[in-house]
Amino acid sequence: MTVEEYFSELAQELQPMPAADRDSVLEYYHEYTEDAHITSGDALTVQLGTPKQLAAQLLANQSIKETVTVNETAPTKPHYRQNAHNTWLIVLAVLSLPLSLPLSIAVGAILFAGLIAIAAVAFAVLITLGALVLAGICVTIAGLYIGFTLIFSNLFVGMAYLGFALIGIGLTLLLAPFTYQTTLFFVHATSNFSRYLYTKVTRNKHLSAEGGSQS
Amino acid sequence: MSIQVSSELLDGMVLALLKREDMYGYIITNRIAESVSISVSTMYPVLRRLTTAGLLETYDKPFQGRNRRYYRITVAGRMKLVEILKDWEQYKISLDEILYPKNEKHHTREGVK
């Protein structure tokens, strides 16, 4: 097979292709053949495959190329649409501002009130526990003092007061560690919560800064 | 070499070659075939695709009584090349993470320090 025969067969096999594409393919391989100093159709077959194989490959590639170009243009459209979508969302947001602004303030106020309430409850619990511990200490001291002063003149009343003092000691010993643990818990919870708020706010800032630089 | 080159990577290689100088089909094919195993017939579709995508443009230069079609990289082609190089860098790192696990750990430790 000569080079000319190879190419005429290739041209025949490439009939399904549009004429302009076919010409450019044939031109490309003609040029390649000359640059590679290939002088026989058999040598061409070694390098490129038979005309039939090469044509099949080129035709397959063309159909792939077409689907690829379709796929490549497809994602850009949703992108524009997305932008338009975002624009409409912004317009909507601006229009709804008279309604959404008081609403968001109200939601914020409710959240803030909830926070205050939780803080108040925590504070009350701590104060109560502290007061109980303090009361235990006071009862202990008062009971001991009165008990010891009365025990010599009035044995049973004095012993009763010493008993109160013992109750006070017991109460204090029971409640003091509990109060200590609860206080620690609230301190930790507060610091964790504020750290969480801080990271959330800074991350949002970071994100919006990134978004700004991109657009 | 038994590893196949993806078409995206092949695009990148062609763009990188043409970034240095304009070339014609035969030279491009040879240069690519020097480093990766491709058949001669795979180059045309690549060049054709890059040209229709506007990443390459062609011009003819007379040579010994015939025309040689030269390929030249466009501005869009240069931008695409930067993109592909970035992707390749990323791909290389993530592959190396799996292919050289010890080595990679060592690297990240140094990075943390």
Automatic annotation (TrEMBL), chain B:
One of its GO terms (molecular function) is DNA binding. The keyword Signal does not apply. It comes from Schleiferilactobacillus harbinensis DSM 16991. Residues 14-81 form the Transcription regulator PadR N-terminal domain. It holds the Pfam family PadR. InterPro entries: ArsR-like_HTH, Metal_resp_DNA-bind_regulator, Tscrpt_reg_PadR_N, WH-like_DNA-bd_sf, WH_DNA-bd_sf. This is Transcription regulator PadR N-terminal domain-containing protein. It comes from the Bacteria. Keywords: DNA-binding.
